[in-house]
Amino acid sequence: MDTSDLFRSVTGLARSAPVWVQRVVELWTGYGLWLFGVLLAAVWWRARGAGGARAVALALLAPAATAVAYAVSEAVKTTVEEERPCRAVAGAAAPLAECPPPGDWSFPSNHAAIAGAAAVALVMAVRRLAPVVVPLALLMGFSRVFVGVHYPHDVALGLLLGGSLAALVVLALTGPAARAVRAVRAGGGRAGTGLGIRAGIRLTGPGPAGESSPEVRNVPGCRTP
Length: 225
What we know:
By secondary structure, the chain is an all-alpha fold. It contains nine helices and no strands. The protein is elongated, with a radius of gyration of 22 Å.
């Protein structure tokens, strides 16, 4: 897939943009993934405080799915070995960011894959985050072309790869993860629990009142959320 002409157009636009726009995009492309990390942590903290087992499972699976997407993206990158456009595309404007060294391949964009995976996983955990995280993921992808280190197809397929893998991981593992959360919380409600259970409770939180209580779980007609 050759998107060299589109790359030239975007990098030309970047070079003609006001300096403050260039600096904002450079900051975002360099540090924007940390914002996704903060959101992943915030969703987990919120879920462990008073969320049900499924909410906690989704919150815990979100960073795990993002990590899987990154690993697969990196594996594809080292297999395809596409040269960076900042070295390969003749006639393109000089990149705003430093061109990665030879051997740091271009396809797909790891930044885009991570952003796409985190956005999809966050939306699956908290749907109302969609208007925030989806545009941020798209902006992350665009920024990688804007600063001159990726082709448009690198980021488009990176976003698609990351988002698809995250959705598959979360859909496949939510049920087992929710059952594990319930088991940990139930164990934490018993006297004399071991260090492993106490560590698990720190990760999952105690849950809503009654969810981890053996007394409530054994009452006929009561169902665990």
